[in-house]
Amino acid sequence: MFLNFARRVLQMLCSAALLLAPQVHAGVAVALNSADGTVSLIDTNTYQVIGKEVACKEPHHLLPTPDDSSLIVACSASNQLVYFDPKTGKEQRRVRDISDPYQLGFSPDRKWFVTTSLRLDRVDVYDAQTMQLKGRLHAPKTPSHLAFDDDSRYVFVTLQDSNEVVAINLATMRPEWFLPVGATPAGILMSPDNRYLMVACMGAGHVEIIDWREQKTVKTVPAGTATHNLQPRGDGRHYFVSNRSMDGSIVLLDTRTMTIIEKYDVPGGPDDMEVRADGKELWATARFARRVQVVDLTTKQLARSIPVGSSPHGVFFLDHAARK
Amino acid sequence: MIQQFLDAFVAVQGWLLDKVVQPPLLALGLGSYIELAFDGVEIFLWGVLQLLVALLVLRPLETLCPLEHWSDRRAVRVDVLYTLLDRLGVIPLAVFAVIAPIFVEVEGWLRFQGFIPPQIEDLLPALEHAPLLGFFVYLVVLDFAEYWRHRLSHTFGWWWALHAIHHSQRQMSLWTDSRNHLLDDLISGLWFALVALLIGIPPGHFIGLMLVVKLVENLSHINARLSYGGLGERLIVSPHYHRWHHSLALPPGPAFRHGCNFAILFPVWDWLFGTLYLARDNPPTGIAPDTVPGTPDHDGFWRQQWDGLRGMWLAMFGPRRPQP
After folding, report:
1. Do B291 and B154 sit in the same domain of this protein?
2. Residue B188 clears pLDDT 60, i.e. is over it
3. Which homologous superfamily is A25-317 in?
4. Among residues A106, B6, B80, B288, which one has the fewest Cβ atoms lying within 10 Å of its Cβ?
């Protein structure tokens, strides 16, 4: 009994010492727990959860500012953007009256900040410097993810329930065209050469390659059940594609050949992803398993499974690979 | 222990999603509802757990220390059916399917007018960093709204004709809680959605709020001698407290002409608004003849639904009758 007591006292002293120590972490991963309204902070070296911060109501996606000095969390039910310090995971500030932000993105020229409102069928365009609303567009139905062309002339948005991609002209703030794609399009990215849009179609289980200048689909690449999102490996050529089913997987797409060249088993509904700068690890939120999964890209096996909060969605760390 | 429970829970939830729910959704082009379906599966599983608690804890309590002894329990059977439909998510899903599109349209339109619905956190920003306190505040506000919904359902003749189905049970038991007319359920859903829109109840709180309310309601209808103690009976609606709400004979006095003890969770609302009635004895339950149009005392599910509609019609267009 005394040993137990002594152990508890020792534990308390150690905890107190940790609390007094400066909160600086060499590597912190931030995972967004949508249903809990929190962010989990994970030490990227030990893979341990080292803290949890309250964010807001229903945070879904996150995005670093172009200079990586802040991490913006889109709080759809709070109508806010919450800025976190990506080094410590601590809150920096809040921007209010941003209506129902779900997915978000900066145009490459850093002029525009665009949000989608998945629930309310809307796309909002803000001045990226002042956060003043410059355009509000009705975008039925269920606008989900977004991508820009390299010249920042267009923002392309997937419309999940109408199975389309809409191209919005950022100069006129008007939709310029709608292109039918496979069922339930979600993730969308521009290819490194600015020629093709790659669209993850959940219902169809494929990635659709679109020549956006010609407004036509040039290829469909089967990826797996519930193909959901894309993330560049950082070498200007390969992209990871998550298949968000419970016994899910992530596959590797070669954009030169437009073929799948690798597959990793990642259970739990892999959703958003992040890649280590050295290319050795792929992190993914497992949406349905309350976990963040870490794939060792050397062994191509699931190496870690980190318990976080409910419905983890976005994940980010500073030590990430290039975004192309 | 908690992590093990969560892991087991999400494993079952994920399996049901993957094997039962997701395939038809994807096949029907409804892939964007998968996240919602995941929450729906969670509601279903919590419902299963609630039913287990009802069967393994509450039902034995009714057997061990019953308030009333019934030689024939056939009248209770229909209440069990109502409970299964409610707790396993059939009725909530149907209500959601009717209400959600309406509120999305209304809210979407409001946003285009530049109006962002207010939230409790606008008044109390400190709640943004205190989710547990926030949960309690939402619970209190929701219960306040529920008090008035419940009271009004006893006040308007047409609404009382629907709600009388709930009160017509003379063998009140733990199963009686869910015995409601489907139209009454729909109105309750609309009321809740309106409150959620006005104060910004976070979707992540829905399940927690529902569990608390359902647990207290389950207990408040139980046919058992169960006391919460002197203080507890004044803080939380108890079986004895709620039994007077279901009393066959109304308490004397004009304050109680529509009934008494309308509170769902916290008796403080009855105290504040003059509808509190405390007495030592346990009255028989049911509704007196001729207090409601029609004869809502049948045991069949569909017959009760018909009785409710007919009673509502008579209350609106038939000869005037005394109200409770």
Report:
1. yes
2. yes
3. YVTN repeat-like/Quinoprotein amine dehydrogenase (2.130.10.10)
4. B288
Residue B72 lies inside a defined structural domain of this protein: no
Are B13 and B162 within one domain? no
Write out the residue range of the structural domain in which residue B52 sits: 1-64
Confirm if B275 and B259 have CB atoms less than 8 A apart.
yes
Instruction: State yes or no: pLDDT of A218 exceeds 60.
Output: yes
Write the residue in A56, A121, A288 that is nearest to B128 by C-beta: A56
Q: What is the pLDDT of residues B135-173, one digit of tens each?
A: 899 999 999 999 999 999 999 999 999 999 999 999 999
Distance from CA of residue A315 to its chain's centroid? 6
- The reply to whether B19 and B132 lie within a common domain is no
CA A254 remoteness from chain centre: 20
Neighbours of B11 (CB within 10 A): 15
The answer, yes or no, to whether ipTM is higher than 0.95 is no
Domain termination site, one of B17, B34, B64: B64
The encoded tokens of residue A103 equal 């997915």
Both B278 and B168 in one domain: the answer is yes
| C-alpha distances in Å from residue A47, one per residue of A40, A41, A270, A292, B52 | 12, 10, 18, 10, 37
Share of chain A above pLDDT 70, in %: 92
**Distance in angstroms (rounded) separating the CA atoms of residues B116 and A95:** 14
Retrieve residue A135's tokens: 């355009």
Whether residue B306 is found in the same domain as residue B239: yes
Residue B88 makes CB contacts below 8 A (sequence gap 6+) with B44, B47, B48, B51
Strands A28-33 and A312-317: antiparallel
How many CA atoms, within 13 angstroms, populate the side-chain half-sphere of residue A133?
Answer: 17
Report chain A residues whose CB lies below 8 A from the CB of B26: 183-184, 202-203, 205, 225-226
Interface test with A, best of B6, B13, B34, B45 (most A CBs within 10 A): B34
Where along chain A do its domains lie? 25-317
Same domain? For B282 and B167 the reply is: yes
Residues of A with Cβ-Cβ distance to B36 under 8 angstroms: none
**How does B132-142 read in b/e, with b if 16+ C-beta sit within 10 Å?**
eebbebbbeeb
